[in-house]
Amino acid sequence: MIDLYYAPTPNGHKITLFLEEAGLAYRIHNIDISTGEQFKPEFLAISPNNKIPAIVDSSPIDGGAPISIFESGAILLYLAEKTGKLLSPELHERTSTLQWLFWQVAGFGPMLGQNHHFNHYAPQPVPYAIERYQLETKRLYGVLNTQLQKNAYLAGDHYSIADIATYPWVVSHERQRIDLAEFPAVRNWFERINNRPATIKAYQLAEKR
Q1: Contact, 1 vs 59, CB < 8 A?
Q2: 95-113, pLDDT tens digit by residue?
Q3: Yes or no: is domain 91-196 CATH 1.20.1050.10?
Q4: Shortest CA distance to 202 belongs to which of 4, 5, 20, 52?
């Protein structure tokens, strides 16, 4: 059983997407980040950076004590290695998958997060920041589009943890002031993932939270 500490954010969705794709049994613990629940000592014991998501795996593959993991990219890699799913053992495809996973967690997610903040949540407009993060968002969508012009999925022919990490951030493209018509390869990829049964189930679950 996987215990998932979760809120329905792009990073939270990454983990439910994987768990639904892999068919793993899991139990959700909602963390209300609007009330500061992520700062409670019991959550910090699992996620010392006071961010969701985090998991506790009560049945690690070494048969040892339960293991806790924080950071969405680390969780996806751990679960892929635990299950043997959504991460190819073949060297070239595995390496490509990890490159694009790290691209998402180091660049695509953080830059789009800044876009969200300065476009929607900053207490006063900051024109320089808005322009900076809007331009970087468009650049990153261009990088994504170029890769998806060459491949069905980010790492090649197979859906992987790199796609799972990236998709939830593209869900919010309109709030990022991005028109997917400008990025047709991204739009095609997005629509295919959007229609996967596991994606539908994961987002239906989020609506109930």
Answers
A1: yes
A2: 999 999 999 999 999 999 9
A3: yes
A4: 20
